[in-house]
Amino acid sequence: MDFTVKQIASLLLGDIIGNAEAKVNQLAKIDEEAKSGSICFLANPKYENFIYTTNATAVIVKDDFQPKQSIDTTLILVKDPYIAFTKLLEEYNKLAQQYNAHQRIGIEQPSFAGKNLKTGERFYLGAFAYVGNDCEIGDDVKIYPHCFVGNNVKIGNGTVIHPGAKIYDNTQIGCNCNIHAGAIIGSEGFGFAPQADGTYKSIPQLGNVILKDNVNIGANTTVDRATIGSTLIQEGVKLDNLIQIGHNVIIGEHTVMAAQAGIAGSTKIGRMCSIGGQVGIVNSIQIADYTQIGAKAGVNGSIKQEKTTVIGAPAMEFKNFMKSSVIFRKLPELQKRIEQLEEKILNLPPSKG
Amino acid sequence: MDFTVKQIASLLLGDIIGNAEAKVNQLAKIDEEAKSGSICFLANPKYENFIYTTNATAVIVKDDFQPKQSIDTTLILVKDPYIAFTKLLEEYNKLAQQYNAHQRIGIEQPSFAGKNLKTGERFYLGAFAYVGNDCEIGDDVKIYPHCFVGNNVKIGNGTVIHPGAKIYDNTQIGCNCNIHAGAIIGSEGFGFAPQADGTYKSIPQLGNVILKDNVNIGANTTVDRATIGSTLIQEGVKLDNLIQIGHNVIIGEHTVMAAQAGIAGSTKIGRMCSIGGQVGIVNSIQIADYTQIGAKAGVNGSIKQEKTTVIGAPAMEFKNFMKSSVIFRKLPELQKRIEQLEEKILNLPPSKG
Amino acid sequence: MDFTVKQIASLLLGDIIGNAEAKVNQLAKIDEEAKSGSICFLANPKYENFIYTTNATAVIVKDDFQPKQSIDTTLILVKDPYIAFTKLLEEYNKLAQQYNAHQRIGIEQPSFAGKNLKTGERFYLGAFAYVGNDCEIGDDVKIYPHCFVGNNVKIGNGTVIHPGAKIYDNTQIGCNCNIHAGAIIGSEGFGFAPQADGTYKSIPQLGNVILKDNVNIGANTTVDRATIGSTLIQEGVKLDNLIQIGHNVIIGEHTVMAAQAGIAGSTKIGRMCSIGGQVGIVNSIQIADYTQIGAKAGVNGSIKQEKTTVIGAPAMEFKNFMKSSVIFRKLPELQKRIEQLEEKILNLPPSKG
């Protein structure tokens, strides 16, 4: 699909400097690889040099952009190039989704559907997907190949279950969720009671998992079901790939977690928190709303104060960790200075005290 | 299924205070969400307040419990409420399992079975499951949809392979194991020999994986097969989700590992060890029996003394790490004190030495 | 298959001490478990004791090996026992592969193939595998059961996609790659734009993933597709299990990464780097060629100097980290020495300055 720069500028409410009739047919990054026919954006001043040499046909720039050299490419001037480009991506994506949605409707065979399956409009069930008994599935739900959906599962409108995701019995999933490939929702939590002889006995895990609306579960992420009650992921939570969520964890609205982080059983995370990659959080604690946890932190106690920022293992206040880290690098020097002090003191005249 | 409080108290050998004929039909946590018809337990004093306001029909409490206010709910008095509740969960689970076992028997279609497949009583093979040639499978084995079982695999009585787990050729699995969804058993270990030109050559991985009885493998956990010989997971070992076990690793009986921990190739872990979440253990070392490794530790050398407790990266004795961690937080203050000392020394009269 | 020691020595260009006609039929580790009929190797002096007691029929040793006791087993003397044994493994593997390749040819049913599928010679498509529309697949490609291959995917000659791997639309895979079980290639990157009200909006992820030749992707590893453009894994890169590669990451030729490491979005890793287990690398930085990153390091800034070795979180030069770590263990002692100094200073006669 070809568009003119004029069409795009009109969509973005931007002004044009250069050839308004130039045609673009793909989105690209502004670097040496952008080809003729591409449209890029320039938001980060660090990439400004590319604008003078790029082969891209058009570049979206901020409306106060002042070129330092001559420019061959056509410019589209907007208030915020990043937001404008995102808008462009979305429009492109709508087209792509229309195309995909068109493709992904209907029941591919062979697939497996249990008893009493209720489905909505424009349902897609991929080949080799398995849906158990007594499931209720909304409109525009897409279940890709190799997904397993157990018995008595509810899935809201517009939710997409990507290839190979596994959803255990009794899971409840809201609307417009994305469960990415290989994610496991509702597996048995790690519940083992130590016995007197040092062996472990399995504790039955009878609860389920509830995902509210607009939840994102990354590829190969695992969410354990509750021992009793529910593991609960509130509205708008975004989990990245390879994350572990223990049994009975509760994650508050619009909290985001980066890849490979883990939360142990029964811990409760507040709303709008931000949790970095490879963070670990111990079991049975509470994290206040708006907490920010830096990458690789090990959180071993509750955080009660909202808007706290922590990092390190064990986790501590961000600024303090950074100060201590700087000195950690200088420890050999510090040790030396202590030795020198000791030597000097030794050589002093004896105290009169 | 409804039960009377009397029936339950009799099962738990407990005494009743309140309505022995009250009917309960579900297990719940003691909090504001417990509904009429629920039975809960109170073990942690922190939750005592709930007992005065709960809508639960019955609560299991310790036999010396002294209420501070009037109580509406019926009490069951036992020696240890947590153990009693666990027993209740187990009984409930037995019923649920009987129900499930009833459901999950037989061969769903389409499924794929290779040549010379030997199976036992009450076998379940889910739709889209794949079993290769020359496999021997015991009684009460359940292989869920989308599982892959390679050639020449042995699986003992009562083992359950959850949806989408992959078992490579020549794997041996004992009795009553649980292999959770998405787990990979026997994939090719990371064996690459560096070449003179800086590239890597793949080393053939010819061994297998052996899981003894009562082993638990968590969701999306990966266990690599041996280069030669066997990667060996001994009886009763419990692995949580998203764990990595390298080629030729040996894990001793009844050792437990929390989520996202990893053990590099050829390392040998003792019996009844406890390994925390996100722990990393380097290759080719040995960890003594009963070792406890705290969350996020990085173990880079053998631990020879039994019952050692370590934490930190690099790992060190637990108490020492904790002491050093406390001082780490005070490093800026310590640096300041050194500066002050230096200043004071400078201002001292010159030494006579 | 039985071989004589003579046959093997001739393959390895080695000399024999002992029975040249003895027959071996398996490769084994030199320990108490090696059985009669096995051939082992001795490279590490630490295992020398085994050579005097082993039941193995033959052992490959270095040509200058001087026994300290009498030896029952037959010896094959070579220049480098490790390399010789690797060669033996390879020969064994060739036989095994011929056997396997023989087994794994053709289309098992049921499987699913979309429109316009082009495949090469000796193609294997396992039962329950799914291949979308417009895919181009080379010679000797093996796609195991439960794999998902989206639309418009290209796969080069000799590449193996192991059970249950998922390859999203538009992925390009080179020749002789190994994508292990449960790996996810091309899933949606973690792109969410924060909104003014604290919620997040999904950013369309329109790019793809490109894997060049000889790439290894470990079991349950996830590689996100680019927002725009390509996530790029260059020739010869070896990724272990459970690794996370963010959107738009570029990894240079022949770089190796150990298990559970993660690289955040848009970071560029150089050639022939070595990245340890559980390492985390933040987004949008650059790591120079030949960088070595120790296990568990947290890299939060670009590394510009080639051949740098770092470790720690935040990462620092290896030697410095080790020195500081040693002193970290002694922090309580250091604190005490500062206290003692302060006390001594206090007791000094007043300064004349």
Please provide a written account of the structure.
- The structure is a homotrimer of 353-residue chains.
- Chain A is α/β, with parallel strands linked by helices.
- Chain A is 17% helix and 27% strand.
- The longest helix of chain A is centred in the first third of the chain and has 23 residues, at 81-103.
- In chain A, the strands form six sheets. A twelve-stranded mixed sheet of chain A has the order 8-10-13-16-19-24-27-30-33-36-38-39.
- The model of chain A has no long low-confidence stretch (mean pLDDT 92).
- Chains in contact: A-B, A-C, B-C.
For the structure shown, list the relevant keywords.
17% helix, alpha/beta, UDP N-Acetylglucosamine Acyltransferase, domain 1, Udp-n-acetylmuramoylalanyl-d-glutamate--2,6- Diaminopimelate Ligase, Chain: A, domain 1, 27% strand, twelve-stranded mixed beta sheet, 2 domains, homotrimer, ten-stranded parallel beta sheet, 353 residues
CATH superfamily of the largest domain in chain A: Hexapeptide repeat proteins
What is the chains' assembly state?
A: homotrimer
CATH class of the largest domain in chain A: Mainly Beta
Helical coverage of chain A, percent range: 10-25%
Instruction: Report the largest inter-chain contact.
Output: B-C, 59 and 62 residues
Q: Strand order of the main beta sheet of chain A, please? A: 8-10-13-16-19-24-27-30-33-36-38-39
Number of strands of chain A: 39
